[in-house]
Design a protein that fits this description.
Layout: E1 5-7, H1 16-31, E2 39-42, H2 44-50, H3 67-81, E3 87-93, E4 109-113, H4 118-127, H5 132-140, E5 149-155, E6 161-166, E7 177-184, H6 188-191, E8 198-203, E9 208-212, E10 218-219, E11 233-234, H7 237-240, H8 247-264, E12 268-275, E13 278-286, E14 301-303, H9 305-308, H10 317-324, E15 331-334, E16 337-341, H11 342-348, H12 355-362, H13 378-400, H14 408-419, H15 425-434, H16 446-452, H17 456-470, H18 476-482, H19 490-506, H20 509-517, H21 520-528, H22 535-547, H23 567-578, H24 586-602, H25 609-656, H26 671-679, H27 684-702, E17 709-710, H28 714-718, E18 729-731, E19 733-736, E20 739-746, E21 760-764, E22 778-783, H29 791-798, E23 803-805, H30 810-813, E24 819-823, E25 828-831
Parallel strand pairs: 20-21, 21-22, 22-23
Antiparallel strand pairs: 1-2, 2-5, 3-4, 3-5, 6-7, 6-12, 7-8, 8-9, 10-11, 12-13, 14-16, 14-17, 15-16, 18-25, 19-23, 20-24, 24-25
Helix pairs in contact: 14-25, 15-25, 16-25, 17-25, 18-24, 19-22, 19-23
Length: about 850
């Protein structure tokens, strides 16, 4: 009679039909000499004895564990793992960790199991074959065969650092790259999508190309938990932004993953853990489903650039749900990003544009070379625009005359909505975004002001066309330089406030030194140690009073506001402590007037008063709307803050009632599900399963940049500019003119990066107003997503910093510390060092 329990190094453990896919793979790697912890395997024979007639889609009654199994486990523990050793119990189903389907995270894993509870843990592992998640996964992969499962019983590692390593880029952007992700504690928090990992991209040889430090808020702790404590705990604030691995340890993980790849015959997804300084291999499986295309609906879809250029990661389900109630009906969310219906845009477009030109215009890349009216569309379009003007024309004209201080009324509206306990989160966002009635004062409609002020892009096009006709050799970039804000925008006031805060810190040299030397983990502690009456503490409180509703990625309702977590602001303060203030005030105004005068002379406007008046009028209107657009963002972000605070209050109620497991879970539900949870129509267990599934999906989608189009011909999606200069030149669009050389500094999150050195070239996936304080230290700014209207371009023009936007995959193609030359006027970035 074959034993039910065998050691992992037993010859029979090579048979995946007997021990499952995971155990068979670990047996092979252990035989190859790789560091796999000691383990036993409860074979599929034991499963068959307890489930003699399993069905694929129907859960059986929980069996009573056979005495034979408990006896074999007891004997094996005494002889192989050692009595009293804490254990990890993991599934190893037949077909698990295969090339067709991985079943990653679908079955149960139990940590810190004792000998007394081992048999029960094995039984629960078996029963996880019929969990809702596993059933849905098998159905999606067309697997209707009767299931079978072995169970791995492994020595429990006392690991304080864990993670994964993909031997190919999981975003499928480069087959010759590797990706290492790491978190504190055991790896389940990463697999479940419960925390944001540190991430390193490496080339095939193991050289680090880029690193991104995540906010690691939760962990599965080392050591057994008391009943009722839950599986996760909060990571201490001082470690949330600390780097989990040293570069040498990243190299060790990469080397281990390459060894797994060599023995696994193909790209591998490797799970690992450090116990002290010793690296252990927990599992290795083939990489399945590299960055699959999103399941886009029929039709043609193009990314909604004004939203994507402020936040490239997918929105959480709650943010998607609530924002979806306020966004235009011309689009929809696909994989957490908002896309416009390109077919509908083509019907509304009054000009004869090619598909490539329409894609360019929709993505705000560039304007068509010629505007040819589509005369046959005019009757319907004129009727449509006339109706729109009747409905909205008054507000449109009022916004042209709006004084910027009128937006202060919006803060009062937000305070009133926040104080009303009867206003639900979706109602709060709708009231603050859409307003209560069409003709109410525009100062209470910051979103409308933001949208209507986008007309400055159209006025800029008119200005360029007039100058091209009147003076073909005019300096186009000089015009763009003049089309910046007036120096009094909210973004500028934020930077000035940080500069004043830095000046306050310098008044206490010891404090300034501590702030400059502190890493991200120690900054909060330095500030918390100050007495409230300290000048710096008072100045920081004042700054948070004015800007505490802002955040990094503030379009995401799950993002903590600076009032809740000031660490991003403190991290950016370090740059101000090391950077001399840029030229402002009288000198900057004088340079602007001189540039305008040179434009007048070059364009031959000095003797033609009406042409000069037209150019100056357009310039002034463009500056007015650019400033208004930037200021309105400061105010409409208050709506996100109010909505978030109401959601957090609801979540606290759910947590207290045991209907939610962790802070942040509410953002992975939709509002109707929260209501169902509150009234008992949705069970806490089903809600938890949905949260878990969506967290994993969100984590997977966050690894890849948003595709600019869906359902669009690749040639059309590429647009009208298809020039290429090889691997040493990157192309983008000029959002702020000028040129600069410097070393690349790749930043994914201002809260977790060290201070920019003066002269660094800031390279980022996107920027939103929360990134503003980094700009004064940068020699140039390069972003993956953006446009002339984007925040990056607006602020860069205000500080006279060269800025390139829409530089595809710049965070992946550039390397930290690489020397580059940014030629924004030409839309080029040249790599000077390999």
């Amino acid at each position: 009679m074959a034993p039910w329990v065998i050691p992992l190094d037993h010859a029979a453990a090579a048979d995946p039909g007997r021990v499952g896919g995971k155990a068979a793979a670990l047996h092979r790697l252990l035989a190859a000499g790789l560091p796999v912890p000691e383990a036993l395997v409860v074979t599929c024979d034991a499963f068959a004895a307890h489930f003699p007639d399993p069905t694929a889609g129907q859960a059986p009654q929980p069996p009573v564990v056979d005495r034979r199994l408990t006896d074999e486990l007891e004997a094996a523990l005494t002889g192989d793992l050692g009595a009293g050793c804490p254990l990890a119990v993991r599934s190893s189903a037949v077909g698990e960790d295969g090339r067709a389907a991985s079943f990653a995270g679908q079955h149960a894993t139990y940590y810190w199991v004792t000998a007394d509870t081992l048999a029960d843990a094995v039984r629960h592992c078996w029963l996880s074959l019929w969990s809702p998640a596993a059933l849905a996964y098998r159905q999606a992969h067309g697997n209707g065969t009767p299931p079978a499962m072995a169970v791995i019983v492994q020595r429990q590692l006392d690991a304080d650092r864990s993670g994964v390593c993909f031997t190919v880029d999981p975003t499928d952007r480069a087959a010759d790259r590797m990706c290492v992700e790491a978190i504190w504690g055991l790896g389940a928090a990463l697999v479940d999508g419960r925390t944001s990992p540190d991430r390193w991209m490496l080339d095939g040889s193991g050289r680090i190309l880029s690193r991104r430090i995540g906010r690691k808020r939760h962990r599965v702790p080392a050591g057994p938990r008391e009943p009722g404590d839950g599986r996760l705990e909060s990571v201490p604030l001082t470690r949330q932004n600390a780097c989990v691995l040293a570069d040498e340890q990243v190299g060790q993980v990469a080397a281990l993953a390459r060894a797994c790849r060599d023995h696994g015959a193909g790209p591998q997804d490797v799970e690992w853990a450090f116990e002290g300084e010793r690296l252990w291999l927990l599992q290795s499986r083939p990489v399945t489903g590299l960055a699959p295309d999103a399941a886009a609906p029929p039709g043609r879809w193009v990314l909604f650039k004004p939203l994507a250029e402020n936040f490239t990661e997918p929105l959480t389900p709650m943010s998607e749900d609530l924002f979806g109630r306020t966004l235009p009906p011309l689009g929809r969310f696909i994989e957490g990003r908002f896309y416009l219906d390109l077919n509908a845009l083509a019907r509304l477009n009054p000009f004869r544009l090619t598909a490539a030109e329409l894609v360019d215009a929709a993505l705000l890349r560039r304007q068509p070379a010629t505007w040819r009216p589509a005369w046959w569309k005019l009757p319907a379009l004129v009727t449509g625009f006339a109706l729109l003007y009747l409905l909205d024309g008054i507000a449109w004209h009022r916004s042209a005359l709006l004084r910027r201080d009128a937006l202060a009324a919006y803060a009062n509206r937000c305070a009133a909505v926040a104080a009303d306990p009867d206003v639900t989160p979706p109602d709060a966002l709708q009231r603050l975004v859409l307003g209560r009635y069409p003709l109410e004062p525009l100062g209470r409609r910051a979103y409308y002001v933001n949208i209507s002020s986008g007309r400055y892009f159209l006025l800029l096009g008119v200005l360029h066309r007039l100058l091209a006709r009147w003076a073909p050799d005019y300096d186009r970039q000089a015009v763009n330089r003049l089309c910046r804000g007036d120096g009094e925008t909210a973004s500028r006031r934020l930077v000035d406030g940080l500069a004043e805060l830095a000046a306050e810190a310098r008044r206490d040299p010891a404090l300034a030194e501590r702030l400059q030397r502190a890493g991200p983990t120690a900054l909060a502690g330095v500030v918390e140690a100050l007495p409230p009456e300290h000048g710096f503490a008072s100045a920081l409180a004042g700054l948070l009073g004015r800007f505490g509703h802002r955040a990094i990625g503030e379009m995401e309702l799950a993002a903590p506001r600076w009032r809740e977590d000031p660490l991003p602001l403190l991290s950016m303060l370090q740059a101000h402590l090391e950077t001399a203030p840029r030229e402002t005030g009288t000198a900057a105004r004088g340079e602007e007037l001189a540039t305008r005068d040179r434009l007048h002379q070059a364009a031959g406007l000095s003797g033609r008063r009406w042409r000069r008046w037209a150019v100056d009028r357009l310039l002034d209107r463009i500056r007015h709307y650019a400033s208004l657009r930037e200021d309105s963002r400061h105010f409409h972000s208050m709506a996100m803050d109010v909505t978030r605070q109401k959601l957090l209050a609801v979540e606290q109620t759910l947590l207290a009632a045991g209907q939610a497991q962790l802070p942040g879970d509410v953002f992975f539900l939709r509002w109707r599900e929260v209501v169902a949870l509150q009234n008992g129509a949705l069970s806490a267990a089903r809600a938890a399963a949905r949260v878990r599934r969506r967290r994993r999906r969100h984590s997977r989608l966050a690894r890849r940049p948003p595709p600019p189009t869906f359902g669009v011909d690749p040639v059309e999606a590429q647009g009208t500019d298809r020039t290429g200069d090889g691997a040493r030149v990157l192309h983008g669009a000029c959002a702020s003119p000028g040129s600069a050389e410097g070393r690349v500094r790749i930043v994914f999150d201002p809260a977790t990066c060290a201070a920019l050195e003066p002269g660094d070239v800031l390279v980022a996936p996107y920027t939103d107003p929360g990134w503003t304080p980094l700009f004064p230290a940068a020699a140039a700014v390069v972003v993956e997503v953006g446009s002339f209207l984007s925040h990056a371009g607006t602020v860069a023009r205000e500080y006279d910093i060269p800025c390139l936007v829409d530089v595809a995959d710049c965070t992946g193609r550039l390397r930290e510390g690489q020397r580059v030359r940014v030629l924004a006027d030409q839309g080029r970035l040249e790599i000077l060092e390999p």
